[in-house]
Each structure stands twice: as structure tokens, then as C-alpha cells.
């Protein structure tokens, strides 16, 4: 006892009974002194040796022990710990409970949980009060403590109150209704002169600014007529890729001007435009363009339209037809007067008071102004400071701009306007509703987000249940096939079937997956991105190369796009966007492809080329020569007998460097190379047509008279995808 003081504790509970606590104590300094364990074989469990020269003389051992949680006295424990509830006979458990949560549910202290865990394979060094326990361990702890367990009921979520914003009721009081300009959408096939027609009406050069002369956005403009009337025109794309834009244009319009080229007649997008107008119940005006060309035939166009229920006035219908030349400006005033006359017949009026309602035609991101939207106001008057909601975003209007980029103070019904102040870019086609305050706007957005999440969860659950059902059926079928085997035999069969997966590393498994092309799609406006995504939705060649869209959005190429493409080995496609020099250098450094285009069909062609490059090349066999086996014999080389075929070339030539195959009864028996090729007794490289030769294979196979020897060359040819986007 002169070398140290032996402290002995009489029972396991006072010591807190675990080797983990002893180890923790041995490595912990108490009041500047370090506890050192004595050989436990020489002393009972719980004996510790404390060297007296390490003890501070002015401290007591009780003071040192009280600083350790597991050596605290009963009185201190009562003061520090909260009152533990009475032990229940049944414990509510749930998944992912911590040690502390389980102790509270059982009405025990944490040390009780540690004591029970001694009977498990858990490493107590890694267990802390906030450590998560497995479900089977939770059940075992409850059972070892002499209790029963039951699963805790999930809290039922209260049904949320619908806080969505809705349109005002339509009020037809003549006192509040005021005339508004008609909204006219110009529809037609690509390159039939829609934008040129609008140019001539506005006296501007819109078409010259479009990439490739093809409109790829919706343009909303006001045209002031000489008589003083205003007409709001929407110029929609005619390309096949922009079907959704054309449909959106007809949903907000009052009149459709159908432009048809006099020399081309009715085309695919012409028919689609007629269908959009019929679905929206919008009246048509037929504008037969390019009538100044010598091959123009306006009468043929009118007769072709009869097949699609578009009957002109001269045939007894109600559709006005005007022959124009947009390029030369012929008969444009006649077309405008026809539009104004039809608008007067429709008696277009709107309520310019109250909360604003409208429709987003297009949205985009601007570096200086942030998210911008082009919208048509349908009710109310939009002013600065109005709080708007559209889709799952909202805006407090900061500025309003007209089609020329000039700031305006207000926008009345029927007027197109660009709105600045959105928190995020809404989708084109979303409905704009004005609300009372920013708080109300946030409530609406929160509700719409919640509804979307619920719908997504419902769909995900359906997919999960379908997958579970499919896996269950596969498992049952597998069990039925193995039902006649013993459990050892079943185990052996399953092991052999899954052996190649068990021993493959994660990286190797990834390489075994299907070939995938990962894409990042960036566009200048929402409608462009939507058009590209609609085209990608038609991709139906997943068996050739899987197409994975990592991200899509608006704006120029950014560093985040580069990082995402690098992580997934993806390709960035940009439509009418830019990538600055620093971004291009970063992409080159990381080996990321950035493909920028201004014309949509060129972007799709580039995408198809990228898909083709991901496809493995196909091997094509080209026959060089054919020979027939006329006789067979054997040659002894050392102790080995080698079969030799005596052949005659009857087509092409035999080249020893090429590959050969042996055909018997139309079946390929062997493929490989020749070990020897001789003419008489001389080794040769080539045997021409009509010559006899003797040859042996690199594999000892017996020849038969009548066998065919084919000499062929293998060439790798790049595959092309069978995907057809439709244009």
C-alpha cells in the first residue's frame, strides 16, 4: 500500500459495470492526476491503482471521483438528473431511436442500456447517448429488460387548409367593362413568312435578328394602325419543335391569322396550327403570303384548306382570305382592316379595375435585371408595387417594360408587358394572379409547393408498390423453380448465378451498366428549354444508349454546370446562350464538352452525333476469297499429326494475314487464322483464284471434303442511333 492506494468497489452497479467505462477512466485525467489500472488478474473487477505522488495534496479523492459521470454519488445523481418516469410494461419503439431516447421510453437511465448492450456484439467504445440503435437491438434491449414492445403510431398530419389564389368571378357590368385591343396570334408553317409579315406591319427588322431566319421565341408586340386602333400581335415559332409555344399562343388570343405560302400550300405545321385554333375556339383569318412569286397559286391553297374544315367566304364559309406579299408590303392594310373588323364583331372588352389577372407568354433570365417575364394582361391594371403570383413563385413588380424595352408605369388589359421583380423564373403559360400582400403570396406559393410534393409522393408510392410487386413475383417464380432442390442445392445455384456480381468492385459494376449520355440543357428563355425537353421526351432508343438529363434551366453556362458535368461525365448543350472565356478554359481543362447553338435543328443534329459517338462500333465482315476443300491428309510435325486441307480457290483470293472461317453444311465450325499456307511445297502469303493450295488451321480440326474456306476482313463501322426526333 506504500506504492499506491487500492480502491475497491463492492458491486458492479457502483462501478457502472462495463469495461468501456474502465478504459475511459484509465485514459482520463482527474484533477490533473491520471488513473492507471492494476493488473486485473491480481485484483477483483473494479480495482484501480492511483499513484500517490500524482495526487494533489489539497484535493480529496471524493472530489476527483465526483467529476466523472460514472463515479458520481447517488445524492449528486438525484440533483443532476431529471425525475425518471415509472417503468412501463409496454414500450413504444420506432426506427432510428438513440440510446437516450430508448432509455426515456423505457423509464430507465442510460447506464441500464449500456449494461444490456454487454450481451450484444456492439462495440461499446463507439456507443454514445446520441448513437442510433438498430431496430433488432432495440427490441432485444426491451425484451432483456423484461418488457414488451410495440411500434409507435405515426402522427397523423392535419389536413392543411387550401390557401391558393383563384381568379375573380366574371362580372359583366357594362359600367366596369372598357374596350381593349385584340390579341392576334400569327400561326403557320416554318419559313412561310410570319415574322416578315409582322416586320412589315411594325416597320422593323425582326426577321433579320433571328438565327437562321427562324423564329424560336414568342414575340409580343403592339401595332398602331393609321386609323388609331391598337392590335397586340403574338409571333409564334413555326418549327416543329415549338408545338407547345403555338398551343400557348392560341390560349391567350382572340384572333388567329393563319399564314400559308402560296407556292408551298398546306404543310405539317399549318395543319397543327388549324387544330390549335379549333381547340381554343378562336376565329381564323387566312393570309396567303408570297403571292408576288410566279409559281404562287392562292386558289390551290384555299382548296387544300377545305380538307381541314377551313372554308373561305368565297366558298360559302366564314373565314376571310387575303392575298398578301409580306416582303413587298402588298395588301397589308387590307389584312389589318379585316382583323379590326373581326375584332369589332367580337366586341372585346375587359375589366380594368380590381386585382390583376394575366398569362405568362415567355420567361427568361437577364444578368442585370434578374428573372423577366413577358405577359399579356387580361383583367385589371398592372402597376409598380403590385404583388403577383405565378406557378410556384411570386413577384413584387419593380419595373414594367414595353416591347421596345422602354419603362412604362402601367399596363391595361390586352397590352403585352415585360415584368421585372420575380423571385424565380415562372414557367411560360402560367397564370398570373395579383394578391393583397407579400405574406399572402408566400402562403399561395407554399400551398402550391405542398400540393406538388403530395402529388409527387403519391406517384412515387405507386412506382414503389409496382416495383415491389414485380420483385415479389420474380422471387416467387425463382422459388418455384428451385422448389424441388434441397436448401444446400438452392444455395449453390444462387451463389453461381450471383457470383460475378459479388466479386466485382463498385467501379466495375458501374462500367457494366448501360451506356449513358448525361446532358445539361441551358436555354435563353423557358419556352426554348421546354421545346428541347419535349424533343428529348420522344427519345425511344434506351436499349442503344441511355439518355440522362442531369439539369435544365435558363441563363448562360456557369461554373456549377461545369462541376455537374464533370461529376457525371456529361455534355452541356446551350441554346441561344453564351459561355465566357473563363468558363470555356475551365471546361477545356476538365475535358467537358460545351455545345452552343442558335438554331434548334442544328442542336438536335449535334445531339444525335454525340449519341452516335457513345454507341459501340459494329464489326462488318467483308469476304475476300472463297475456296473448296478437295482432299484431306495429315502431316507429322515432331510427334504431332496436323490435319491439312487441299483446296482450290474459286472466288477472290486467300491472304494469310486475314481471318478465315470453316463452313460445313452452312454452319460455321471455326473462326481464326491459318498456321500455314502452301502452294506445292512453298510457303506463300497469297493464293489467287484458280490456284490450288494446302492449308492448316491454328486449331487441330478434322477437314471434310466439300468444306468451304472463307477468307474475310473485319472492319469496324460506327453505329448511328435509330432515334428520329421528327424533323
Automatic annotation (TrEMBL):
Keywords: Coiled coil, GTP-binding, Initiation factor, Mitochondrion, Nucleotide-binding, Protein biosynthesis, Transit peptide. One of its GO terms (cellular component) is mitochondrion. One of its GO terms (molecular function) is GTP binding. It is found in: Mitochondrion. Residues 179-349 form the Tr-type G domain. The keyword Zinc-finger does not apply. It holds the Pfam family IF-2. Residues 454-481 form a coiled coil. One of the essential components for the initiation of protein synthesis. Protects formylmethionyl-tRNA from spontaneous hydrolysis and promotes its binding to the 30S ribosomal subunits. Also involved in the hydrolysis of GTP during the formation of the 70S ribosomal complex. NCBIfam families: small_GTP. This is Translation initiation factor IF-2, mitochondrial. It comes from Vidua macroura.
Amino acid at each position: 500500500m506504500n506504492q499506491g492506494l487500492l480502491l475497491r468497489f463492492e458491486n458492479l452497479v457502483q462501478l457502472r459495470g462495463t469495461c468501456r467505462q474502465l478504459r475511459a477512466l484509465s485514459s482520463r485525467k482527474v484533477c490533473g492526476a491520471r488513473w492507471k489500472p492494476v493488473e486485473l488478474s491480481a485484483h477483483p473487477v473494479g480495482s484501480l491503482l492511483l499513484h500517490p505522488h500524482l495526487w494533489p495534496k489539497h484535493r480529496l479523492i471524493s472530489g476527483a471521483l465526483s467529476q466523472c459521470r460514472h463515479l458520481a454519488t447517488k445524492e449528486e445523481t438525484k440533483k443532476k438528473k431529471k425525475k425518471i418516469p415509472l417503468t412501463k410494461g409496454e414500450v413504444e419503439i420506432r426506427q432510428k431511436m438513440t440510446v437516450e431516447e430508448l432509455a426515456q421510453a423505457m423509464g430507465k437511465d442510460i447506464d441500464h442500456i449500456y449494461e444490456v448492450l454487454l450481451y450484444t456484439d456492439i462495440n461499446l467504445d463507439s456507443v454514445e447517448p446520441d448513437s442510433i440503435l438498430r431496430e433488432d437491438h432495440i427490441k432485444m434491449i426491451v425484451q432483456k429488460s423484461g418488457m414488451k414492445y410495440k411500434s409507435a403510431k405515426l402522427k397523423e398530419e392535419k389536413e392543411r387548409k387550401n390557401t391558393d389564389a383563384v381568379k375573380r368571378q366574371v362580372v359583366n357590368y357594362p359600367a366596369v367593362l372598357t374596350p381593349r385591343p385584340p390579341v392576334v396570334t400569327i400561326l403557320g408553317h416554318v419559313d412561310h413568312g410570319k415574322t416578315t409579315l409582322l416586320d412589315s406591319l411594325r416597320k422593323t427588322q425582326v426577321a433579320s435578328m433571328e438565327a437562321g431566319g427562324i423564329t424560336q421565341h414568342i414575340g409580343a408586340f403592339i401595332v398602331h394602325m393609321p386609323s388609331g386602333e391598337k392590335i397586340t400581335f403574338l409571333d409564334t415559332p413555326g418549327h416543329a419543335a415549338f408545338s407547345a409555344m403555338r398551343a400557348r399562343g392560341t390560349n391567350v388570343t382572340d384572333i388567329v391569322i393563319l399564314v400559308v405560302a402560296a407556292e408551298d400550300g398546306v404543310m405539317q405545321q399549318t395543319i397543327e396550327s388549324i387544330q390549335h385554333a379549333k381547340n381554343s375556339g378562336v376565329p381564323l383569318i387566312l393570309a396567303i403570303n408570297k403571292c408576288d412569286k410566279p409559281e404562287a397559286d392562292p386558289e390551290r391553297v384555299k382548296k387544300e384548306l377545305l380538307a381541314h374544315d377551313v372554308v373561305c367566304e368565297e366558298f360559302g364559309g366564314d373565314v376571310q382570305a387575303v392575298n398578301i406579299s409580306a416582303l413587298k408590303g402588298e395588301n397589308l392594310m387590307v389584312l389589318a382592316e379585316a382583323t379590326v373588323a373581326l375584332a369589332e364583331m367580337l366586341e372585346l372588352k375587359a375589366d380594368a379595375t380590381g386585382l390583376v389577372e394575366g398569362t405568362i407568354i415567355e420567361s427568361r433570365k437577364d444578368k442585370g435585371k434578374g428573372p423577366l417575364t413577358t405577359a399579356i394582361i387580361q383583367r385589371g391594371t398592372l402597376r409598380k408595387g403590385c404583388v403577383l403570383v405565378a406557378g410556384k413563385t411570386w413577384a413584387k413588380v419593380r419595373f414594367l417594360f414595353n416591347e421596345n424595352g422602354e419603362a412604362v408605369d402601367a399596363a391595361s388589359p390586352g397590352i403585352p408587358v415585360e415584368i421585372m421583380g420575380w423571385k424565380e423564373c415562372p414557367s411560360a403559360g402560367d397564370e398570373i394572379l395579383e394578391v393583397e400582400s407579400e405574406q399572402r403570396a408566400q402562403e399561395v406559393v407554399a400551398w402550391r409547393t405542398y400540393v406538388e410534393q403530395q402529388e409527387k409522393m403519391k406517384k412515387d408510392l405507386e412506382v414503389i408498390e409496382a416495383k415491389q410487386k414485380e420483385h415479389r413475383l420474380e422471387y416467387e417464380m425463382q422459388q418455384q423453380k428451385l422448389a424441388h432442390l434441397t436448401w444446400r442445392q438452392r444455395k449453390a445455384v444462387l451463389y453461381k448465378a450471383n457470383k460475378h456480381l459479388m466479386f466485382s468492385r463498385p467501379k466495375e459494376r458501374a462500367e457494366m451498366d448501360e451506356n449513358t449520355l448525361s446532358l445539361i440543357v441551358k436555354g435563353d428563355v423557358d419556352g426554348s428549354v421546354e421545346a428541347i425537353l419535349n424533343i428529348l421526351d420522344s427519345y425511344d432508343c434506351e436499349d442503344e444508349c441511355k439518355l440522362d438529363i442531369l439539369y435544365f434551366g435558363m441563363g448562360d453556362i456557369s461554373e456549377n454546370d461545369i462541376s455537374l458535368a464533370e461529376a457525371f461525365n456529361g455534355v452541356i448543350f446551350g441554346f441561344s446562350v453564351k459561355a465566357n472565356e473563363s468558363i470555356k478554359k475551365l471546361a477545356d481543362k476538365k475535358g467537358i464538352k460545351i455545345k452552343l447553338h442558335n438554331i434548334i435543328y442544328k442542336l438536335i443534329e449535334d445531339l444525335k452525333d454525340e449519341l452516335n459517338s457513345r454507341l459501340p462500333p459494329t464489326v462488318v465482315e467483308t469476304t475476300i476469297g472463297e475456296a473448296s476443300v478437295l482432299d484431306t491428309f495429315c502431316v507429322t510435325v515432331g510427334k504431332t499429326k496436323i490435319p491439312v486441307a487441299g483446296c482450290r480457290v474459286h472466288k477472290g483470293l486467300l491472304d494469310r494475314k486475314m481471318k478465315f472461317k470453316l463452313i460445313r453444311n452452312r454452319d460455321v465450325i471455326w473462326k481464326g487464322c491459318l498456321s500455314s499456307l502452301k502452294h506445292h511445297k512453298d510457303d506463300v502469303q497469297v493464293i489467287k483464284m484458280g490456284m490450288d493450295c494446302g492449308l492448316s488451321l491454328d486449331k487441330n480440326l478434322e477437314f471434310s471434303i466439300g468444306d468451304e474456306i472463307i477468307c474475310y476482313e473485319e472492319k469496324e463501322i460506327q453505329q448511328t442511333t435509330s432515334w428520329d426526333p421528327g424533323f
